Amino acid sequence: MKILRFVKQLFQRLDRNEALGMSAELAYFFLLSLFPFLIFLLTLIAYVPITQDDVLGVIRQYAPGESMKLIESNVARILSEQRGDLLSFGIIATIWFASNGINAIVRAFNRAFDVNENRHFFIVRGTAILLTLAMVFVIIVALLLPVFGREIGLFIFSSYGLSEEFLTIWNTIRWGVSFIILFFVFSCLYIVAPNIHLKVRDILPGAFFATVGWMSASLLFSYYVSNFGNYTAMYGSLGGIIVLLVWFYLSALMIITGGEINAIILQWNKRRYS
User: Fold this and answer.
1) CA angle, 239 then 95 then 57, to 5°
2) pTM score, two decimals?
């Protein structure tokens, strides 16, 4: 069957292109950039209409419980110092560490499409920085939309005297925006990062898989950690960090797998029309 052949080829490519090792590398860069990025976002609270709980609430939807406790305690400790250079430090550290992560994604996608990286170092690094800034902007918009969406829903509810079921439906639609934003971010990543010209239709399957896969893997892993996994018993005080790294590892694996899916489909299409 065609589906079985596709799955077999996907696993073969993941093994050949060392997807598991690349995922571990990405997880390391994700961990390095997480706290500077949160510092950057939370120090912006005074300038945008969002609260600290709004920022952490987005992460809380997907992050495992033990990791969330670690994130909240460390962020609270850092922000309590009230240092004036936190914002500038957060921007610089976020751009640097996150762009390193984007560079790792670029290498993974180039392997998937079997292309060499012949772009100049400054072009690759500049692209990584631009993608990082774009992702930061999109994430900020993603944080603002639920806030404004809640206010809009309450305004409509009170103005027209609608039932409480309307608010439930509105909240479902409002949080469904998260899926659209994630899909947009992954689509941009898949079309810009690899050193190959791709059309929008070429990257849609991988972007859809990465979006659904990441959200599903995050929720399932969070459920597992909350109900079955006891990392603290094995790793002690490092349990929260280990859980966080495993979550980042699964996230990176979903992103890389999406790139491999795009590469397989592109290869099959070329054979069909050649």
Assistant:
1) 50
2) 0.76
